[in-house]
Design brief:
- This protein is an all-alpha fold.
- It has helices spanning 2-5, 10-23, 28-40, 44-58, 64-73, 77-85, 87-90, 94-110, 114-121, 133-148, 152-165, 173-181.
- Helix 10 packs antiparallel against helix 11 (152-165).
- It is globular and about 55 Å long.
Length: 184
Amino acid sequence: MATKLLDDDPELALAHARAARNRAGRVAVVRETAGIVAYHAGEWAEALSELRAARRMAGGPGLLAVMADCERGLGRPERAIELGRSEEARALTGDEATELRIVVAGARMDLGQFDQAVVTLQTPELDASKSGPTAARLFYAYADALVAAGRVQDGLKWFLNSAAADLEGDTDAEERAAELSGDQ
């Protein structure tokens, strides 16, 4: 029920997740679900606690990006960066590695380290021919970091790449590009 309600009513979803945790708190998937639902409800400390419990139970580096983002939500970008440097982070591949990289770049931006955020996102996955949600998010984060670093024209290019990759319309990359180019 928690996952069904997540998009429409995160608070009610969280109530269901908490009820499930109270009944089956020793089941890793229940704790993981409670953590994800708490994350979507903006309950960073609860989400982090639940995700840590799930990882202790099940092992593996999964959901490291969500945990790092919780640290950012709690005002601790340094801890998010530490998670991004961990041995577990080095084990990530594909979309999970990209998501963690996006979060770490955001933490760098929280600290005013704009050039380091740009460098954090420069990977082989930063390929303008790619499309899909992960590519769109990566291109968007890169564009945002470029603009913050004062490289507005490069940022405009990557916002346009993000808009082209965003087949689902999940980002506002098109609007950001129009804003930067003055086409309002």
